[in-house]
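Appendix B, record 7
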Amino acid sequence: MLPRQEILKGCGHPEALEVLITLAEEVLRTWQPCWSPFVSAPLREEALERLATLTELQIHTAGGRPEAERQRLLFSRRDEGDAVIDSTPLPVMGLEVEGNFLFDPVEPHDMRKAILAIETDHGSLEEGALGDLWIRGDRGAQLLCTPEAATQLHGRQSYVRDVEIQLEQRPLNGLQLPAIRTPKRLTSVEASCRLDAIASAGFGLSRAKVVQQIRNGRLRLNWKPVRQASKDLSVGDRLQLQDRGSVEVLALERTKRERWRVQMERR
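Structure tokens (predicted):
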């Protein structure tokens, strides 16, 4: 048995992390590698940090595309080495969601919510069945999911608000994946370390647009929703903006004119 209480102490996602601990214990007991459901980025980071100290356990992560935010974790015994990746391929399929959103633009969270609400022969899906989802203009969306979810959703029809959608499963090589972002180092001089100032410089948006993104719940700080544009950032803080990547604060230096030189990396 793993030191469950010690691992869970002070964690931010106790219920979800406990599910992963149970899965890890089963893998160590049976010697059979196993993939987790899709997990969010903050849960993944917390799981890797808290379970990495276990000497018998190793964890590989993959989400079906480069830079995937939602990923599955492969638990195996450490003595199996990296060869376990070849013998336990990533169980991920693609889905095409077609619909005419020309007059009713859709956001990723609206599309995800609608898909999770679809009733299949086995009931509605769990959140862990779906990976990353990206909107394709006014034509609908594509997403990654478990093979089981792809089978259950294939051929289904539903609605996002008043727009009818049709779902069809696709192999990964049949998807048009989002472009891979190249990391870019940026330097900006700001009057303060406020979140809206750094986000504006990092994402190349006006401060008014940054504030609007905050109000819409699209901007996150260290993977958590943020509502305070005036919050001061520190070195190591990371901002995530839906559909625009992330910005990490690398350094903050006071200038002779009492301003702040901010070094950032955008991905």
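Remarks on this record: The longest strand covers residues 245-254. The mean pLDDT is 93.
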